[in-house]
Amino acid sequence: MSGYKVAVAVALAAAVVVGCGQKVPGEPRAAGAVNAGTVAGLPVDNNAPTGPRAGVEDATLAVENADKGEMDRLAINALADIYDYWTERMPADFGGQKFEPVKRLASYDSGGKPVQLCGTSTAGLVNAFYCGADDSVAWDRGKLLPMLNKQFGPMSVVAVLAHEMGHAVQFRLGEKSNINQATPTIVKEQQADCYAGGFFRYVAEGKAKHFEMNTGSGLNQALATMFFIRDPAGLSAKEKGAHGLAFDRVFAFQAGFTEGPRRCAAMDVPEIEQRIEEKERTEYDERSSGEADITAEDIFGKFKDSLDEAFKGAGVQAPGITRNGAKCGDAEGTPPVSYCPDSNTVAVDMGEMEKVATPPKRGEEPGVDGNGIGDFAAFAEIASRYVLGVQKGVGAELEGETAGLRTACLVGAWTQFTVDKDPDVGSQKLQLAVGDLDEAVAELLQDNSLIAADINGKQVPSGFARVEAFRIGYHDGDAGCARAFS
User: Range of 94's domain?
Assistant: First the structure.
């Protein structure tokens, strides 16, 4: 975040406080009310197991070049369950059309002896893919699958293969899935993420033979996988091969989970052109680098000014911000950032915030293994405690899951109004940079994130709900927050 200017209204508790919110074109979220206790109508459960079912016999599918190791067993069992899902859903959702398994499944080791798949050598090919030329699905058992399994758990492997099978489904449905030879890649990729979300609903409902997943931490792992396989910031959605930012990919996955395959098939060029947030890197982004030093006096001063400007319409005293630790007097607060209601102050441990604001090195993942995320993640954490002060000023409840969701929503509304339509490197206002939305998603999915937490730091357990709440604010502004979390 190299800067941003904001003019957002706040909607809290029982009423809209002021009315300068702005609706952004496109669907703000998957259909259905956001409820911290449910995920698309399923109860949130962190205690149920997630991963391969114990005591279930492995599936037997014909796979070329398989080594019968753990990763191949995981992949084959996943594909068997995905086959079962589409055998049920394709005829049910698409006029009785029968699902046909892919003609070819193949496993390879990107660091081992190469083979030819889809006209390409697998040497160094750290990937999983669907190839329409021979109707095949292939995966790298040597590096990609073990890396996913280690960082996010076995359901991340299932998510990647469910996405690739989503492409196979498109190939079979054709026009029923709004797909033809001229369809841009980004539409196909959003649909495939959506179809994967539909399959994960099937798993969460306990219907899959080989896998099970709880709707709390288990589903959060799947969402984190969507972040991992995002496009790099600045890749235009018009580029061949574009898949979408994490912000876009998580939406598509959630839409499939909530509404099912027919919603996925309805994704077309007009929708994507309205909704997608994947923006091309501009000259401004190149010159400004997109990351700010949050410890610099001028940057932090602009940040505080932006918050004050954003919420001045609420008619309440703006919270102050101190940077000498996250304690509230004798109280411990919610380190690394606390809202102190007695003094109407946001207390910040800048040392810890600086760690969050430090982007990971090339090849490392944000928020994984102690890595930082980026400046916007840190700013959003502080902003979440600031909006608690605004909510207190208008008499809103600051404890509980609704407060946590409302807080995330208001941070999302604030984020949208940081978008400068005509960025200027010399601007005195802070401006949202390319990649900042993905920093928000990464921080929202952290187990210790405060963006969707109440005054006591109690986080909404469902990452699904956290992202949805943020998205409502981003797309529908204060009015959306009022409707959803009054």
Answer: 49-213+235-275
